[in-house]
Amino acid sequence: MPDLNLLTTLDVLLAEGSVAGAAKRLGLSPSAMSRALARLRETTGDPLLVRAGRGLVPTPRAVALREQVSRLVQDANIILRPVQSLDMARVERTFTLRTSEEFVERFAPALLARIAREAPGVRLRFINKTDKDSTLLREGSVDLETGVVDPTASPEVLTQALFRDRLVGVVRSGHPLGQGDVDVRRYAEGQHVYVSRRGQARGQIDDALESLGFTRQITTTVAGFATAIALARATDLIASVPERYTAHPREGLHSFALPLSLPTFTVAMLWHPRLDADLAHRWLRGCLREVCAEQVQSALP
Length: 301
Known about the structure:
With 301 residues, the protein is an alpha/beta fold. The chain has 3 domains: 5-80, Winged helix-like DNA-binding domain superfamily/Winged helix DNA-binding domain (Arc Repressor Mutant, subunit A); 88-165 and 266-298, Periplasmic binding protein-like II (D-Maltodextrin-Binding Protein, domain 2), CATH 3.40.190; 167-263, 3-Layer(aba) Sandwich (D-Maltodextrin-Binding Protein, domain 2), CATH 3.40.190.10. Helices cover 41% and strands 23% of the residues. Helix 5 (101-118) links the parallel strand 3 (93-99) and strand 4 (122-128). Helix 1 crosses helix 2 and helix 2 (19-26) crosses helix 3. The protein is elongated and about 85 Å long. The chain starts with a helix and ends with a helix.
């Protein structure tokens, strides 16, 4: 069985590119480091570092291993490190969040304001979420995601609920559906804008209407709820969107409860277990959880 202690030695050797430099960094003698390099060469079946002039250069295998070894060592240090405090005011770090544009529009202003107060060296990079694939979380190119809780989600991804939500109807001020009760017939007979990030032609609302003997006419399909809300504000189209996304942009809009029996859903944040004990990541998760709770509470009538 390979000696896992060699991972740390390999990480330092690849970072230093020098037996003497690695020995000094690890507090070993040059001869002890040379023996360790010999063991690494035997274990991996590769020279790893070869002479080039007066120095050493990494082999292609060593270059390929560098990032993976560094990540493994970092993960091991996180696991073995005792719980400690972290001064977020001194942290310099960029987090990548994969989420919808609507989530950014609704919750990012308050989140960014809090980060500016508590951790001015922290930067957020938002990228658009178009599917539920957790590959980017596993690969480490995304630090945190938000989305509707999916029972079929990968078991290696951790989740924590942020808030519950439901779909509501949205129309422009002065729209006929802004007057009187909205029953199934009135709702179904209108012209609808449908949100589908994956280009699907119908969804749960259409299934619910069909079970009652109704069919709605979808005249426009868009990829995001923000676009659907904007179209509803400017046209006679009916948009069916998550209620939390209509909390602030209500000017020029009228919202109503859908005349259908649809389940509520939970919006959660998702992250990979390797970041679970990371103190800065844990702080970010706490900020996001508290900001969402505050914003949802402030939007209550």
